[in-house]
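Appendix B. One record, verbatim.
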Amino acid sequence: MNLRRTLTAAGAALLALAAATAPAVAAPAPTTAPPSGTASLASVLAADGDTFDRNWYDFDIVDQAVAAVLAAKPDSPVAVLADGTVPLTAFLPNDRAFQLLAFDLTHRWQPTEERVLTSLAGAVGIDAIEQVLLYHVVPGATIDSGTALRSDDAVLTTAQGATFRVDVLSERLALVRLVDQDRNDLDPFLVKSKLDLNKGNVQIAHGISAVLRPQNL
């Protein structure tokens, strides 16, 4: 299922969600003009097609996980990713990050992207996958990388409801850790080569090295 072809009636409910879940600690205001484009993050997620491949450093598993959630729950707030008029910032784990999560949860190493997603769905269920996806979305704010690098100790409230903290270890090196709700596992870092995806639009994304965890998994 290609997320770009997903039709959703989220409308006002999603806008209300965005307003209700603004960052708990505001990030510094961008120094440039605010973006105005309305291309959705769906186009980023499906940029290389809507199928799995052998590149572990793109976002096929996120794309397919979103599609799986919407197939099972058409009214899920995850559909906000297909509405480019709603400002948000998404932090996107690459496929390798999901492979490592699947191994951590099941103690089995899955050799393909498709088997990784199947393994995760079997281990935690579609509702948990939905919650994890929403934990990677910060609605109501378009946070570019420059703003993120000036946001040390900002606490961001996600579409899932829980928060994570921005820990800027080096602004010069663009070394940023995201501190999630699972205190027993390594936290993800921003991937320097995958920042500001969909730049110029009100929906923006940054690649991260691991899956954010809204609770102790």
